[in-house]
Design brief:
Rossmann fold; 2 domains; Elongation Factor Tu (Ef-tu), domain 3; 278 residues; binds FE2/S2 (inorganic) cluster; binds flavin-adenine dinucleotide; six-stranded mixed β-sheet; 8 helices
């Protein structure tokens, strides 16, 4: 696999400042961040950064905003442990450190001119939001766009206001489903896989882009293959425990690949033989 060359500057922790926070759910917060010197992050949708909190540690986090947003960028973080909980305790004006962006993002140039079926499970919407915003900002470069989103309950839906805006657009199809809901939810209830058979698509020109919890992949891929989407047009993003984020420590290794450097975005055809990956 082609190796990414990491420049000296990518090793460095750069100073950055939180300029806005938005609580999305009790566990997830959106942070808008500006790099010191007002420089642009220059990432690709699907890439991640290492968020560094001085004296606490680092965590890999996907960039949740499109590179078309030049002056700042956003990350959506779930508070689960030391670093992410400490980050949630910060507010606008606080300083953090950033390394990256790292990894291979979604193959945007290859997507151009083709249709997209984007399947997001839970927090998987974070890296996919970067792709969705990029597609909407460059709408003419892409064919049909269909978004399927699945969450545990209606209270877990992230970016509900943006989802509503996307739902009102004529040039994007979007459907949402929750695993379980109280009576006031009028949308569908069930697993995200149940939405796929109903999507009308032309498999030879469709890329299925899937990001979600590990348990989701096997079943979603099965449905995409049943729709005759070729294996090399099924695109996945993997989350692995990472330490360095740039191919040095081996923490994220699956067989002969480093998820941080060769991924986190992969074609299904390239990883389907790696049972540990799923
Ligand atoms: C490429 C990539 C992109 C990611 N993008 C996002 C994102 O956009 N938003 C977000 O909230 N999280 C994201 N994560 C997960 C995030 O990195 C972990 O939740 C974070 O590292 C936990 O750090 P902590 O110090 O808060 O938790 P810790 O105290 O280290 O651990 C708390 C719990 O989180 C689990 N955990 C730690 N690291 C990971 C990991 N890499 N994947 C899954 N579980 C983990 C631990 O097993 C433990 O159960 C991403 C991970 C990767 C590899
Ligand atoms: S996290 Fe160190 S090699 Fe990938």
């Amino acid at each position: 696999m082609e190796k990414i060359v990491i420049s000296e500057s990518n090793y460095q922790i750069r100073k950055a400042r939180i300029v806005r926070t938005k609580k999305l759910t009790p566990l997830e917060t959106l942070f808008e961040i500006v790099l010191d010197g007002d420089r642009s992050l220059d990432h690709e949708p699907g890439q991640f950064i290492m968020v560094s909190l001085f004296g606490i540690g680092e965590a890999p986090i996907s960039v949740a905003s499109s590179p078309t947003m030049r002056d700042s960028f956003e990350i959506c973080v779930r508070a689960v442990g030391r670093v992410t909980k400490a980050l949630h305790a910060l507010d606008a004006g606080d300083e953090i450190g950033i390394r990256g962006p790292y990894g291979k993002g979604f193959p945007i140039r290859i997507f151009e001119g083709n249709d997209l079926l984007i399947v997001a499970g839970g927090l998987g919407i974070a890296p996919l939001r970067s792709l969705i915003q990029y597609v909407l900002d460059n709408r003419r470069d892409f064919g049909k766009a269909h978004l399927l989103l699945g969450c545990k309950t209606p209270q877990d839906i992230l970016f509900a206001d943006e989802l509503d805006q996307w739902r009102r657009r004529m040039d994007v199809q979007s459907e949402y489903i929750v695993d379980r809901a109280e009576q006031d939810w009028t949308g569908p209830v069930g697993l995200i896989t149940t939405l796929i058979p109903g999507v009308h698509l032309e498999p030879e020109r469709t890329f299925g882009v899937v990001v979600g919890p590990p348990v989701m992949y096997k079943f979603v891929i099965k449905e995409l293959l049943a729709k005759n989407i070729p294996e090399h047009q099924i695109i996945l993003s993997f989350e692995r425990h990472m330490k360095c984020g740039m191919g040095k420590c081996g923490r994220c290794q699956i067989q002969n690949i480093y998820t941080c450097q060769d991924g986190p975005v992969f074609r299904y055809s390239a990883v389907k033989h790696m049972s540990e990956a799923f």
